[in-house]
Amino acid sequence: MSDYIIKNGFVFDPLTGIKGDKKDIGIKDGKIVEASEVKGGKTIDASGKTVMAGGVDIHTHCVGPKVNVGRLMRPEDKLFRSRTKVGNTRVEMGFSVPSTFATGYAYARMGYSFLNEAAMPPLHAPHVHEEIRDTPIVDIAAMPVMGNNWFQLEYLKNRELENNAAYTAWLLNATKGFGIKCVNPGGTEAWGWGMNCTTIHDPVPYFDITPAEIVKGQMETNELLGLPHCLHVHPNNLGNPGNYTTTLDTLKLAEGIKPNNKFGRDVVLHNTHLQFHAYDGTTWADFESGSQKVMDYVNKHDNISFDVGFVTLDETTTMTADGPFEFHLNRLNNLKWANTDVELETAAGIVPYVYDKNIKVCDIQWAIGLELALLAKDHMRCHLTTDHPNAGPFTRYPRVIKWLMSKKARDDLLHSFKWSEKVIAATQLESMDRELSLYEIAEMTRAGPAKCMGISNLYGSLKEGTNANIAIYDINPEKMPKDPELIEKAFSETAYTFKDGVMVVENGVVIATTPKYTVWTDVKVKENAIVERDIHEKFAKYYSVGLENYKVFDEHMHNPRAIEVDATN
User: Fold this and answer.
1) pLDDT at 80 (0 to 100)
2) What is the CATH number of the domain that holds 24?
3) Is residue 89's pLDDT more than 90?
């Protein structure tokens, strides 16, 4: 590890309020320090370049069983846009479902340092952690899926919040998970009966609880424990015309709930991939954008956040714990399909999909994602994702940034569509002149996600004492390029990426790897005899594995970085 001084760069760091000031940054012993503290270190001349903290991806699907099944069922995904071995890197394979090595290298080239795997089946947590271990450079956390968990359904139905909190703490510790993820609350369990929950008031078969009760109870549980991240929700009724009403009903459940903000977050509910939940119309024939209606509400309520899930108009591979949606998608496109039920916990499905620019629905979806980000008034609560790989691969983030920063780039693509007139009529994108700034991009990709996840003391900032995760982009904010393609190029491959003080990328080439970390939440609660009894009884009666074989052991993990939460009081 070397010490560095990064000189003369234009620094954008929303968590310290730096908006493009020329500033020198020091790196010493893997931490960010005042440049004057570095004696005899190497100098990086960042003149004419943009300097940001390492990127933070709040919602991606990059490791775990469904990702691996996606790799297995899509051999054709490896035949295009794979990279050959360069220098000391491993061979990189895959486009929409890249290999573990390709994932780590690609994120590093884009300047990212932290990923949140947003759907870990608790039963398969050891597999998730094995793939985290095998993904180079970037630190990764994983969120166990709980929105259809039998334990929680029973506790929340009976309003046993303390028991639900104790079980949640046990599950986070058992799986080495980060926080509470809720996918299609109640609907995935209903799918086991061939049913679904498309509104927040539909009863879950057998359990006699509604999605509204599940989401509300999980939010209250999350704040009772004081977890770093808020409740992470994939709402009901994903991907259907007119579903913006279900989305608004879900968001309104957060009204009156205040954050237990010991980790500095301000929100209690994070709505994932909002693009898929902001649809108006009654059928695909009259399908149109509902982004304005959703954002009118979001902009007025500062205790909720969202990531967008931008459609990138690519061939990709959809994968989600929303089993009934994947069945529905398979019936729409008749492509390959995999579906599974994870006992007592969740489900999942995988379907390849092509977002074709010559299909009107796909073009409207593309426009809706951009509208959401351009309508947002607070980009600390609006985060850049593609719900990788569901709306497109994460490697398209630079392209999304180009669209957000350049009206010309948006309009050129919009007017190239076969159905451009109908897309324009169904959306408001063409009339939107707003172009986001580099500071707002830093909010969407660094500061905002880090703050929302409660990890801003470790990631997403250039403040002194923070881990030296730094991205330097070859883009001059005083001379912004007239050609928007240069924006995409700059964000695709950094001039330099530093991970924990180690230079891992230089001029877009991975030159080194460095020890990385598995981030999880170590929650301590009072002993709860009722929950302990319930866990032993259900494992003996229902699970196909023994309790002693369920937990994640240390050998499954790689450099565990625990965030400690004391909820004993």
Assistant:
1) 60
2) 2.30.40.10
3) no
